[in-house]
Design brief:
By secondary structure, the protein is of the alpha/beta class. It has 4 domains: 74 residues, Roll (Ubiquitin-like (UB roll)), CATH 3.10.20; 118 residues, Alpha-Beta Plaits (2-Layer Sandwich), CATH 3.30.70.20; 122 residues, Rossmann fold (3-Layer(aba) Sandwich); 218 residues, Fe-only Hydrogenase (Larger Subunit), Chain L, domain 3. Helix content is 34%, strand content 13%. It is built from 18 helices and 18 strands. The strands form 5 sheets. A 5-stranded mixed beta sheet has the order 2-1-5-3-4, with helices on both faces. The chain has a 4-stranded parallel beta sheet with strand order 12-11-14-15, with helices on both faces. Strands 13-18-17-16 form a 4-stranded mixed beta sheet, with helices on one face. The longest helix has 25 residues. The model has no long low-confidence stretch (mean pLDDT 94).
Length: 594
């Protein structure tokens, strides 16, 4: 360990540690607009400059490594004046319509200007040309609000490996945009929304479905039902000042009921259903290969994450037969709501509006896919992100933190703890194993409190082997088989895993992939700004929700069992195949509109 002096304090540091990293560890605030935790610094915004004794110029704290004996001032008059001037210059080019900007309450640029004491109007001058890119189902880009911090580029390239955004042009005319300054729909954007999640201003946001939802709620002829994804309950409270990881399931249900939804259901119900369908599909593939000596596409990949599905369609079409044919829980719910539930409730499907609350912007795209209309109508009509639901609750005049708790409605609100953990990286895998292992062996999954600890970490790629022993007679052909499993979150990690499988360096039977870092709890529609500390707090909350449930295995959900007896028949049966399964097709990587 070496030592330096920062603001008069002696600080120990490891070789290679940057000034910014050490400062944050010691509780010293150094503002930044371009830095993202865990990623190589770009030093693009220069807002994090500090004064180093003996250095002729101020240094960017995010990219400057500490040295033995270095003396640093992070808030000297020279530093404060430089930051103030830099932010004023950014403001001079920024379209600052703060009164009606959706980021007005959580805009990092606005907050930084206040922190630095900027009270005068910035210098007037030429501003970038304003245009709106609304070409995708999920995202909206506003060129005039972009401050060229390049966070979105780091997210899209270094974290997701998609490469939909890059700097275009030079100097003042530089803009952050798809190739040839085209629209997002012209490139292989998977609409994951990680760019919108890290943007410090309102330059990239989700495409709002709030107006459509309000219109439906106010229409007396519409029967409006809502489903809520598991990740929402561990993050929605952040929209109202609650700490990350605060569970607000009951308050969320009360808020939705008071806003006028006719029924409040849980996407967890169809997450449990997904396990029955996807687990049965996996066992059928294993039976074909192991018992019958036939061919089946293994590994089987999960198909709950729409960004991951698009990524496969664009970049790895050779693996498309390996995708589970199961729709995501969101889309399963929509199909069932407009068929099974509509019949039970005596509502005409054409009069029903299905609203989803999701942590994911790509769910907006998924709901609009042409494949997602097996009910005879568009299965899911509107998708709200967690952030949008927070705004809708605020607009509805509800004091969220003071609301009492309520229960989800039956029958599509009954769920197990296994469904809750769909929110976390490794959660779908663990939920599947809780059921599949018990089906094959007749015994609960071994492990502490049903958890598989190696799968619950934030490592980008996790692998696990499970030897099946003492199998039931029906599954005796799997006796002694070593089932190899893998989990990846973040699309760059998924690409690394796929490359390893493609090149024969790895082989697996079942693979879970989640588009966003941390899984759905780190989705592109969650409250900003999500770092590993926030992800872990939400993950822990989801596990608490799971552990507090009386039912913790999907196959023990009585509502799902009744659904099969009353309507679907059996997993992978004719009716479930029609309503709950689909197939995807290859997409062109680039369709430039020049």
């Amino acid at each position: 360990m070496s030592e330096c002096i920062m603001n008069g304090l002696e600080i120990s540091f490891d070789p290679g540690e940057t000034i910014l990293s050490a400062a944050r560890r010691e509780g010293i605030r150094i503002p930044s607009l371009c830095y993202l935790e865990g990623k190589d610094p770009m030093a693009a915004c220069r807002v994090c400059v500090v004064e180093i004794e003996g250095a002729p110029r101020l240094a960017a704290a995010c990219s400057t490594p500490l040295r033995e004996g270095m003396k640093i001032k992070t808030n000297s008059p020279r530093v404060r004046e430089s930051r103030k001037e830099l932010v004023s210059l950014i403001l001079s080019e920024h379209e600052g319509n703060c009164s009606w900007c959706e980021r007005s309450q959580d805009c990092e640029l606005k907050a930084l200007a206040f922190e630095l004491g900027i009270q005068d109007a910035p210098e007037t001058g030429e501003k970038p040309v304003e245009y709106f890119d609304e070409s995708t189902e999920a995202l909206v880009r506003n060129s005039a609000k972009c401050i060229r911090c390049r966070r979105c580029i780091t997210s899209c390239n270094s974290i997701q490996g998609v490469g939909a955004l890059y700097p275009q042009g030079r100097g003042f005319k530089t803009e952050i945009a798809p190739a040839f300054s085209g629209e997002l729909a012209s490139v292989a954007c998977v609409q994951c929304g990680q760019c919108a999640a890290v943007c410090p201003v309102g330059a990239i946001t989700e495409k709002s479905h709030i107006p459509g939802v309000l219109e439906a709620l106010e229409d007396p002829e519409r029967y409006v039902v809502v489903q809520t994804a598991p990740a929402i309950r561990a993050a929605l409270g952040e929209c109202f000042g609650m700490p990350p990881g605060t569970l607000v399931t009951g308050k969320m249900v009360t808020a939705l009921k008071r806003m006028g939804f006719d029924a409040v259901f849980d996407t967890n119900f169809t997450a449990d259903l997904t396990i029955l369908e996807e687990g049965t599909e996996l066992l059928h593939r294993l039976k074909t290969v192991v018992k019958e000596g036939g061919k089946a596409p293994l590994p089987q990949f999960t198909s709950c994450s729409p960004g991951w599905i698009q990524f496969t369609e664009y970049y790895y079409p050779e693996f498309m037969p390996h995708l589970s044919t199961c729709k995501s829980p969101q889309q399963m719910f929509g199909a069932l709501a407009k068929t099974y539930y509509a019949g039970k409730a005596g509502v005409k499907p054409e009069h029903m509006t299905v609203v989803s609350v999701m942590p994911c912007t790509a769910k907006k795209y998924e709901a609009a896919r042409e494949e997602m209309a097996d009910s005879g109508f568009r299965d899911v009509d509107y998708v709200l992100t967690t952030r949008e639901l927070g705004r809708l609750i605020l607009q509805s005049g509800l004091d969220f933190t003071a609301l009492p708790d309520s229960e989800m409605d039956a029958p599509l609100g009954i769920s197990s703890g296994a469904a809750d953990i769909f929110a976390n990286t490794g959660g779908v895998m663990e939920a599947a194993l809780r059921t599949v292992h018990e089906i094959v062996t007749g015994r609960p999954l071994p492990g502490e409190d049903l958890h598989i600890k190696p799968l619950s970490t934030l490592e980008g790629i996790k692998t696990l082997s499970l030897v099946l022993e003492n199998t039931a007679e029906e599954w005796i052909f799997l006796e002694g088989v070593e089932v190899r499993l893998a989990v990846a979150h973040g699309l760059r990690n998924a690409a690394s895993l796929l490359d390893a499988v493609k090149e024969g360096r790895e082989s697996f039977h079942f693979v879970e992939v989640m588009t966003c870092p941390g899984g759905c709890i780190g989705g592109g529609g969650q409250p900003r700004l999500t770092d590993d500390r926030v992800r872990q707090a939400r993950i822990n909350a989801i596990f608490r929700e799971d552990e507090g449930k009386p039912i913790r295995k999907s196959h023990e959900n009585p509502g799902v069992a009744f659904l099969y007896n009353d309507f679907l028949g059996e997993p992978l049966g004719e009716k479930s195949h029609h309503l709950l399964h689909t197939e995807y097709r290859q997409k062109k990587k680039v369709q430039l509109k020049i």
